[in-house]
TrEMBL record:
InterPro entries the record matches: MetalloPept_cat_dom_sf (IPR024079)
Protein name: EcxA zinc-binding domain-containing protein
Domain of life: Bacteria
Species for this entry: Chitinophaga hostae
Length: 499
């Protein structure tokens, strides 16, 4: 037996180990292998027992799905941006052009924005007590006609999305894995697991919120692919994200995917309007193909609306009978030297004349009537000052405003993709992102608005009220519709559900 120094009162020995019963005082050990408390017989030291392994703790963080930088509108994707709800932008003038000179959130009502982005979310979560607003994705189901009659190959390759890991506490490369779970067998995400080391390899970044708050995060570009195959989604679906380390597992995020079991159809009639001395030479067949592509694959597909160009035709006003008062009224608006040209009245005149003489006029009722299931796009090379386009519509105090089923693009807007889609958005019931409604016309107020010219939304303007350009215009990035706009457009009276 080796040397042993002890001030314990009792020592019990045997040939295999030495045991000390400690009763009081300090204890210094050398050869002792076991120490027990005499009062309870509890072992407080065991030389031969393996040291306990310290259990790894799952670090706290959130995971967000994000749209890639090269997004062109090929699927719907919406999320709540920091600048919508935090005071990050310096606003010189409000939407009435009144001096503001304050740093504010871009949205007028932060609480309403948050509530809107939680609308329809399946099983809302608050990971670690943090507010969480899932991103929304909309994609067409990739099916054949037997599986779903309105199937499409538009999103057959799915949507390739970025992942963002937002730290609540500093993360380390400790083997933590992200696990993605979809309970719908037709909604698939690949890969199904990612080690957070892959995100950390991209390097930590920092963005700043008001009051000196720093958000530290990692982004893995093109991290996951989401696809819907073989059957449409009957309901809004979720893809949950879990963080897993050992036997610990926490839900840290999710992606909402919009239902796609109903695919409304939007039929378009393109009408090139000419008059004496006007021939619309700027509109050629390549422009027409480009128009159709933008409608099909870079805009209204975000709301899972199938756009189809059904008619490409011309309409020459100069050939119409002058005995018709509607014809002379229209020409008077065009050529009169006594009054300023009224572009809004011109659209109404053209609609009225096309309903009488147009080759592809509605078979029953008026263009702006409920029975009409086509959207008429009138193209004119007439200059209308700074006006690119205008949309038909009607309403008053007694009746809620209804956008019409037609719009006109003037000379300045003929080559402008954003104008073409913006005016079509009005025809499907959308207001401007900055419009607070108009009680005099029965136009209802939205739950919130944005400051003009600060978003990438198709229904925003290309300039701000202080005269600056919308920052998204420079790279032609006005390409988004918000999820709440998807909801509105899909209910428009002009869409065809049975086809």
């Amino acid at each position: 037996m080796g040397n042993m120094i002890s001030i314990a009162k009792t020592i019990v020995e045997n040939s295999e180990q030495s045991t000390i019963y400690a009763t009081d005082g300090d204890l210094s050990l050398n050869a002792a292998s076991l120490v027990k408390l005499k009062s309870t017989d509890k072992i407080i030291y065991d030389k031969y027992k393996a040291p306990e392994k310290k259990e790894k703790q799952l670090k706290k963080f959130l995971v967000h799905f994000r749209r890639p930088a090269g997004y062109m509108g090929e699927y719907g994707f919406d999320w709540i941006r920091d600048e919508y709800i935090h005071a990050l932008y310096f606003i010189e003038r409000d939407n009435n052009s009144h001096a503001c000179m304050s740093t504010l959130p871009l949205a007028s009502d932060v609480a309403a924005v948050k509530a809107t982005y939680l609308k329809d979310v399946k099983n809302p979560v608050k990971p670690y007590g943090k507010d969480y607003y899932p991103a929304w994705l909309s994609i067409f189901p990739h099916t054949n006609s037997r599986q779903f009659k309105h199937g499409s190959d538009m999103n057959k390759n799915g949507a390739q999305l970025d992942l963002e890991l937002e730290e609540i506490e500093e993360v380390v490369s400790d083997g933590t894995t992200l696990i993605f779970e979809s309970k719908n067998p037709h909604l698939k995400i690949t890969p199904q697991e990612i080690n957070i080391a892959a995100l950390m390899g991209s390097g930590k970044q920092t963005r700043f919120l008001p009051n000196g708050v720093k958000v530290k995060y990692y982004t893995l570009k093109g991290a996951v692919n989401v696809v819907n195959k073989d059957a449409p989604l009957q309901n809004h679906e979720e893809i949950k994200v879990f963080a897993k380390l050992g036997d610990k597992k926490e839900e840290v995020g999710k992606l909402m995917v919009y239902l796609n079991n109903v695919i409304p159809k939007m039929e378009l009639a393109l009408v090139k309007v000419s008059h004496q001395g006007s021939s619309i030479t700027t509109i050629d067949q390549q422009h027409v193909k480009d128009f159709e592509y933008q409608f099909k694959r870079n805009s209204f597909n975000q709301a899972l609306i199938r756009a189809e160009l059904k008619t490409d035709t011309s309409f020459d006003i100069s050939t119409l009978p002058l005995i018709d008062k509607d014809v002379t009224s229209c020409l008077d608006n065009l050529y009169s030297v006594k009054k300023v040209f009224d572009p809004h009245q011109y659209l109404q005149d053209v609609i009225r004349l096309y309903e009488k003489y147009g080759e592809h006029k509605p078979t029953g009722g008026s263009i702006d009537g409920d029975a009409n299931k086509r959207t008429y796009i009138f193209l004119s090379d007439i200059g209308a000052g700074n006006l690119y386009g205008t949309t038909s519509g009607q309403g008053d105090l007694a009746n809620e405003f209804e956008w019409g089923n037609a719009y006109m693009i003037f000379q300045k807007g003929l080559g402008d993709r954003a104008t073409l889609l913006h005016e079509a958005g009005h025809s499907l019931g959308l207001q401007h992102t900055f419009s607070a409604g108009d009680p005099l016309s029965g136009l209802p107020a939205p739950p919130y608005t944005f400051f003009q010219g600060h978003t990438d939304n198709i229904m925003d303007y290309t300039w701000q009220t202080n005269g600056n350009r919308n920052p998204f215009v420079a790279k032609d990035n006005l390409r988004s519709f918000f999820k709440f706009q998807w909801d509105i457009m899909r209910k428009d009276r002009s869409l065809i559900l049975n086809y």
